């Protein structure tokens, strides 16, 4: 069996989660290639070495460019903040490496478009890309997509999506890189809203075509963590709200916020169609609610499907029914799908083109917000 | 349309609820007879007069026997504590009055058997009885029965029933009549457990045939409300637990308690069968959970049926879907069924015979508890 | 005790519900006046007579104007479609009758403003008005308001409100008056959205000041019920979505639809504040979810308050804890509050001024929808 | 840092789960020793080799006894069916190896007592034992224990525990080793009930002292998987029900079954005390319900604690709040605790003595069931 050498760039929260997934994926799934955790890249040599030891990577380096010339590295896994995605991803693609890039794809449409251009060139040489919209790999949501594709909810009418967190509720919580436009691009919009948009695209298998959006920064200044007594400006949105129209005529409401007190990772989505409905909340990630309008009214109702049956997506490899999965397993599934696509020369999803489409929706939201929430078409670009 | 003159005996909590139901039933349902709230009976003349005015009864009296000779009284509705049920009910039946009697039917099997004997005699003259096991009239539970009768859960294997309240959690809460054996007969067993047994009989359409039970009094003495500083003995059970076998082979676990902190009126029942399951909690009384094991495993799950559709039991007379009902409506349904049975010379359920069967189960629990929880057959009596 | 003579205009769904509430309110609550169901008005003499008999009104008439000159009528209760509200209400107020008017107050701001003008004149003579936004009288929601007023959720950041029904999911369901602009004014917006706006005003005790809205009609034509084989145009919105800003800075998302398959009467609202959150769903109307951000993180969580305690709003008059209430009781509470305000010369809420404020928000939504969802200020009028 | 050489015996379901946990534990937690997956033992050489490769064990063998003489093996992890636990565990302990043994500890009290005797001898040499009651390591349940220990629910009154699965609902499902008394010891009682008993002991920190139990085999014969057309007897219980008394006076109801249609891994426990209550369902394993009776009645209610905060047991090592854990993580926590105890010469729990106490409760249930459910004291043995 061929090995697939992996280089990880970044070793904070996402790097740790990806490492755990790389360690696990080949032990649980029958993969067509054997992933090798070849090298971990960080900005500081010491920290990278320590992280490599802890997370089980063979080597470490503080120079991510050095891994691009190595023959034993076939895939670059980018877990850094958004402002460095474009440079790393384009270099890696140009060097003939497959690229898995954390979301959102980039901090701007321009960057994302350049990345997709590089991906498009690379694709001709069999080089593949994937964006880390891991929630697609929640079994309950993969099941939701297959139910929709099978016509079980009919024509979609409403998409109601919100991603609710609460870590900024306290106005005295300090600033970090996620609150700086130059690092993060945007706030709740890109961090949380991007997941919602990709998920909606995935579930409905159709795109958002226009939006009306509003952005809000509730707390304009926050303490600087390294400068006691001083505060700095928050330059991103605290909350993003937008209404959307899908190509097929469905209406969507989207809300992303870090101010929903008591909601910890409340990614929720409900879709109402002419023949049924689906509802999901990540805080109960093993459950999918499904209403089948074709049932007799007397016995119809939202059923709570515990998505842990062997016939559910990804589940055959795991545990008996009811032995629930967690957040980290979405990444195992993501890697399984990407590795399989690479081995089989398939078309992984979401690829950079899909990531760019999400970016264009976010951009339209920002443009709408800047124009009194007027409806804005999502630009279609050349791709 | 014939009128049906009603005499109410007792005007505390249950009397108030029945009054509201008598006022409502003919306004909402198309009844074959017109109930008249003729007379309210209480122990004290003043209180009875006041209650009659408040609850809308034409007359009042402190002599319940006086109503038995009145031609304009056709039905006696008994809402007194259990120790007076037998005398009132037997007298009323012998006087040719239909009787609706609050649960439990009596404080002992002997009394209940005498009442059923009187009912049996009266039945020959077209006089009917009903016991106030109102939870049968929760639409969601009536629906549950019809699903079971239609074979939707197959052969019942498990019945898991509990009735959880918490008003005795505080050991300093004072004694009242419900804690005195001479008034109430038993404690949680007769007050709450009786509902569970009747409900199980109703849902499965088969009886409990043997039990193994345990009774517990957690707090042996409590303050006497009228004698400051003094305490009196609690002479009933605080909690009753029993295991039961049904005629058809199903196993039941029953638990009734007034010490379940935070559970207010938590009447819960779950039934697992070879082809499906049903679950219910009165605190969400408009919902029935139904699992259909015949569904493909990938889309199976407990569905939450909101039992407010026009096709659901009793619902046609009420509001549009989703406009939920409450506790009091179970009594309106009870009266609707009893009045209808009287007009149509039908067979109301649960009648005194059904009440007696419940009493025999409670008695078997008490006998088992007195014999180290040995299994006890439920006596079948002559009836 | 003084009597309060009531005339009911309209006897369809709302008329039936109000009748039940008028029958009940004085039996359950200690009222300072005794309401008398004096006369029921309908368009057709026969139907009115029948309805009066069924619902327990002393007299009936097909001429609502005739009741305005009766001395024994003190209050007119308007349960007709929106297009007749203004004429009836203004006439009644000018005749010195208190007016309870179903929601929405009117079909246009102009009508609503004229009604409020009449109400304002009448107020000087001690004549009072109320709009039938009954959901304010759900105990769980009245509790929510008192928690917010007590500062338990701090500064409100987000209001997330949706009112989901599904009776139009089937594209072949026929047209009725609710789908005709000339009768109903608007569709989901006025029927369902009006409740959400009033509820948000009530809970936060502050108004919506600007909105960005979108309206959608998914199915443009539907069968005409009386003309087999022919279809007619739907002239109202099937769904209404809007984003709102509150005076205090909170952001709101509102959604009203009749296309949410499986949601029957899903009026939901969640409010996130700097110190806590509240959440509610009418389909579980006895429950309020409350998160107190002041709790230690280890034991914090949304608590499910079963709003059936004696200390909860309206509950003292009802049943023991856990003996849940239903939809109809919200109307009993509404009448209790209005009758009390009349007797005590108080200030009932929501009065016509409050109803007008809601109407202005709906109007701003319509104007915004007509201008590509641009933000529109809610007009403040002269009042 | 010292290494801890591990030998795994058995590589079916439990062996796979333990392997994943051994791979993960040192990557996520800061351990005082470094576990090495030294050798995997199976009955068949080929299968063991394959499993070792897949699960990442350095070597494999078909002779578990051979590992007991190896110096590089310090811990034996037993994942075989119950009938081989005693021999392997006693040999390993006598050879000076720490032992982690899957539950139930043994198939009989005699075996369990012999194992505890060996453990007791070994303890004097610093050799430690642990039984694989992994549900103790669900963060929500570890939190529950700490709340109880802190007095947050006061004196326990009721324990209501059930473990509901449904894989035997189909009467034509074939026999496997779990349905054979000679391999499994008992059925639902030992497989599921054992977890409930250990969990109750853990949460309350006190033991069951007497029981009244009933066992049931609903389907007496099932198809033999290897002999088409023939059936064999089921020699274990399909369901086990028992009532229990705890040393401190609390009453428990326990139910374990494989016939609860639609319940997949429904391990549920609710504890009601004089000052509050706790409730848990493994199918929503990241949530703990907690009712604090000390709250004002108006705002009291069961709160849903999402047990994913950094301050919750085990959580500091994992992901941000709301990024939920799954079944497998309970094993990671188990290993973390056992490795830590070994390194620090602590007292791991539950050790073999705790496992023996559980076994004695199960034995008392069997004896009671054999004596018409008479109450049986749990034997205290010499230990």
From TrEMBL, chains A, B, C, D:
It holds the Pfam family GFO_IDH_MocA. Keywords: Oxidoreductase. Residues 5-122 form the Gfo/Idh/MocA-like oxidoreductase N-terminal domain. InterPro entries: Gfo/Idh/MocA-like_OxRdtase_N, Gfo/Idh/MocA_oxidrdct_glycsds, GFO_IDH_MocA-like_dom, NAD(P)-bd_dom_sf. It comes from the Bacteria. Residues 143-278 form the GFO/IDH/MocA-like oxidoreductase domain. PANTHER family: BCDNA.GH03377 (PTHR43818:SF11). This is Gfo/Idh/MocA family protein. It comes from Saccharopolyspora griseoalba.
């Amino acid at each position: 069996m061929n090995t697939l050498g992996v280089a990880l760039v970044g070793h904070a929260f996402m790097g740790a989660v990806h490492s755990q997934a790389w360690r696990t994926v080949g032990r649980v799934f029958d993969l067509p290639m054997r992933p090798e955790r070849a090298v971990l890249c960080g900005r500081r040599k010491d920290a990278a070495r320590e992280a490599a030891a802890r997370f089980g990577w063979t080597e470490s380096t503080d120079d991510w460019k050095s891994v691009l010339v190595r023959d034993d590295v076939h895939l670059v896994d980018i877990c850094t903040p958004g402002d460095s995605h474009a440079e790393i991803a384009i270099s890696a693609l140009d060097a003939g490496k497959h690229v898995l890039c954390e979301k959102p794809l980039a901090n701007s449409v321009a960057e994302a478009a350049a990345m997709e251009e590089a991906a498009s060139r690379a694709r001709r040489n069999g080089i593949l890309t994937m964006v880390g919209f891991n929630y697609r790999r929640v079994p309950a949501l993969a099941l939701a997509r297959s139910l929709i594709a099978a016509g079980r909810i009919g024509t979609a009418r409403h998409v109601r999506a919100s991603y609710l967190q609460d870590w900024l509720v306290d106005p005295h919580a300090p600033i970090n890189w996620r609150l700086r436009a130059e690092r993060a691009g945007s706030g709740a919009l890109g961090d949380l809203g991007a997941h919602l948009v990709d998920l909606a695209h995935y579930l409905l298998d159709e795109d958002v075509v226009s939006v009306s959006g509003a952005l809000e920064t509730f707390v304009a200044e926050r303490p600087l963590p390294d400068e006691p007594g001083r505060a700095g400006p928050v330059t991103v949105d605290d909350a993003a709200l937008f209404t959307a129209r899908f190509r097929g005529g469905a209406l969507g409401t989207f809300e992303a916020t870090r101010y929903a007190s008591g909601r910890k990772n409340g990614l929720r989505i409900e879709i109402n169609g002419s023949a049924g409905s689906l509802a999901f909340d990540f805080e109960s990630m093993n459950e999918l609610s499904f209403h089948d309008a074709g049932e007799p009214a007397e016995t119809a109702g939202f059923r709570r499907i515990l998505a842990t049956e062997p016939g559910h997506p990804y589940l055959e490899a795991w545990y008996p029914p009811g032995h629930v999965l967690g957040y980290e397993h979405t990444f195992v599934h993501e890697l399984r799908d990407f590795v399989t696509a690479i081995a089989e020369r398939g078309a992984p999803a979401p690829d950079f083109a899909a990531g760019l489409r999400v970016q264009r929706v976010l951009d339209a939201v920002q443009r709408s917000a800047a124009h009194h929430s007027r409806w804005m078409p999502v630009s279609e670009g050349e791709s």
